[in-house]
Amino acid sequence: MSARVRKSAFARAIQRAATSVTRRAFKAGAKAAGDAVARTVDAMAAPYRPPPGAGDWIAGQAVGPAGLRRFFLFRPAGVRSDERLPLLVMLHGCGQTAASFARSTRMNRLAARERFLVLYPEQDRTANPQGCWNWYDTRSYHADAEAATLMAAIDQACLLYPVDRDAVAVAGLSAGASMAALLAVTHPQRFCALAMHAGVPPGLARSAAGALAAMHGRRLPAVEVARAPRPPLLVIHGRDDTVVSPQNAHAAAAQWAAALGATAVAPRTVQRGSRKAMTVTDFRCGRQVCVRLCEVDGLGHAWSGGEGGQLFSDERGPDASRLVWRFVAAQLPPHASGPRGADARMQAERL
Asked: 120-149 burial string, b = 16+ CB within 10 Å, else e?
């Protein structure tokens, strides 16, 4: 074989090898790029994916003075047309969606077991780029407009779904807790209970600057609240919260206790298994617990006992969802379904 023939055969072999390597590299690159795109799409879709729970995840919209707001309603499986169930309104915090908040709190699983409805309104990013409820903006009436829009969403849920209107409670985390408190103050007759997790009590801010000061505990005036009807209040707050100062928890409890004429009893320490301990202080109106303050050791700005790996969620804390529902159940009217009356109050006392 001549040198020219050998050189040509060698060149073709090199070309075939290079082509094969290029094809394999292209396929590997395309697969890696496809996997990266799939991971990105999955991460973007995760906050909106329906959370687990044996029931229906129903999307809806409500229109009010603040414009249009989406909401999602969880309905347990097997609800009969003649039933009327309690409704728990859950307001998410900044950076969360309705679905991510439901996944973090795992409230749907509890609702499926205890048979109550859960309404998750969702803030519009055009109203607040971080997804925060504008609880503080009372100077420009944005807070009032959002509160009225949330009430429109609640009214719509009561109209379209089997809600017991005498058994509606509201709860929230962070900005959602502050907005929940505003709803309870402006519409006390509409709610049988309120639960604030890491929130700011109403009346401490009228602007964004005031909100930051209140969150850091710099605007906590002496409690001077006239007696007024308010629903019973549960406050849960982490002692290590650096986003919303724990002083706000004490301010909220004191404000509510003054409005209801409640008196504090001796604090007690509660710990279940390896979960973080909490100090519980009850404020009673006679024999009834009107205000309960739960301060969790070692908890930051996160939903206590929430699902691991979720934003603003700490699985090592006491189960806040269970605490919220037990407190709410103790306030429900006797005709409402589920554990009621003395049984519910005993469960709430045991935490």
From this structure: bbbbeeebbeebbbbbbbbeeebbbbbbbb
In angstroms, the first-to-last Cα distance of the chain is 92
Instruction: State the Cα angle at 98 between 150 and 212, rounded to 5°.
Output: 70
| Burial track 207-237 (b if 16+ CB lie within 10 A, e otherwise) | eeebbeebbebebbeeeeeeeeebbbbbbbb
Task: Give dist(CA 175, CA 159) in Å, integer.
Answer: 27
Q: CATH assignment of 52-350, given 3.90.1170.40, 3.30.1490.20, 3.40.50.1820, 3.40.50.720?
A: 3.40.50.1820
pTM exceeds 0.90, yes or no:
no
Question: In this structure, what token pair is assigned to residue 49?
Answer: 């994916």
What are the tens digits of pLDDT across the range 294-325?
999 999 999 999 999 999 999 999 999 999 99
* Burial of 100 per CB tally in 10 Å (0-12, 13-18, 19+): buried
**Residue 9 and residue 16: Cα distance in Å, rounded?**
11
Q: Where are the alpha helices (DSSP H) in the chain?
A: 3-45, 98-105, 107-114, 142-160, 175-186, 208-215, 247-260, 320-331, 341-350
Separation CA 140–CA 148 (nearest Å)? 14
- DSSP single-letter state for residue 152: H
Structure confidence by residue, pLDDT tens digits, 147-195: 999 999 999 999 999 999 999 999 999 999 999 999 999 999 999 999 9
Closest to 347 measured CA to CA, from 333, 329, 332: 329
Write down how long the chain is.
351
